[in-house]
Every structure is written in structure tokens, then in C-alpha cells.
Design brief:
Helix content: over 70%
Structural class: mainly alpha
Number of strands: 0
Radius of gyration: 24 Å
Largest sheet: none
Amino acid sequence: MVDVQTIGVLVTAASVSVAVIYYMFTLRINMKAREMETCRLAMSDMSSQTGLNRYATVMTLEWKDYDDFNQKYGYSNPEMFGKWCSQFFMLESMGVLVKSGVAPAETMYYLGCYGVIYLWEKYKGIIQSRRDAAWGQDYMVNLEYLAGEMMKIKAIHDPSYSIPEPFRYSPNK
């Protein structure tokens, strides 16, 4: 025979179990909402007119070699230095979000982050030169990671895709 006290203990245990499960679901929903807000904030600059203008400007820069790049777009030209550096650091930050799992790579791809593929292709020689010259081999590794992840997704969706020639930078053009 079950007495009232046993029923009370069972009801209490069931209530605590339901509360724990509810808390776990709520926590997971809130974490997903924060992740999506982080993705949205990260993409808001990139997809703004200012961000798109900056990307277009950075993608039209030309140079002969690393020294020419530094002379034209380095510290002596603060406006251009600011444009390419802010573009690089914004994408570096997005790479951190993808690498850490906060922003799913597939989500970032569909939000337009695939443009990093072209930027990486054009600037990988400059980035490697900056790594060798001063900043170390970890310079812009998250930008590189992001470009690699975007290219993997692109290859899944279109296995025949290759980077168009205009985006392959050749300083001898």
C-alpha cells in the first residue's frame, strides 16, 4: 500500500525532473538564438553597402609584389590600409566564429560569406608574405580556415566549380 508521504516524494521527484528537462531545453534554445544573433551581427557589416563597397575596393587593388603592395597600401596610405585591414580582420573574426562552432559554416555560406574564397585566392601571397616578414605563421589563420570551409561547401554544392580566372591574382597582369 502506498501512503501519502510516498506519493508526495514521487510527485516532488517528477516535478524536479520536469523542471530540469525544461531548463535544458530552454538553455539550448537560448544558445541557438545567441548563435544566430552572432551570425547576424557578423554578417550585417559584410552585407551593408559600406561593407560591400569595402569588399569591392579591396578586390580591385593591384600590386606587383609584396613591397609594392606595402608601398601602395601600407601605413603610408591610411585610407587604403584601413580598408583592406578592416576587411581582413572582419573575415578573421568570422573565421573564429566558424572554427569555434558558434556560427555554422553552412549558415555563413548561405549568408554570403563565400566571397572570402575570392579574397583568399587574391591575397594568399600577401598574407603569406606578411606571415614571413613580421606577423608569424598564425597571421590570418582563421581567415584562411574560413575560406577553406567555404570552398568545401561550394565543392559539395557544385563539384565542377573552380575559381574563375579574374579572381586568381597574378602580379604580372
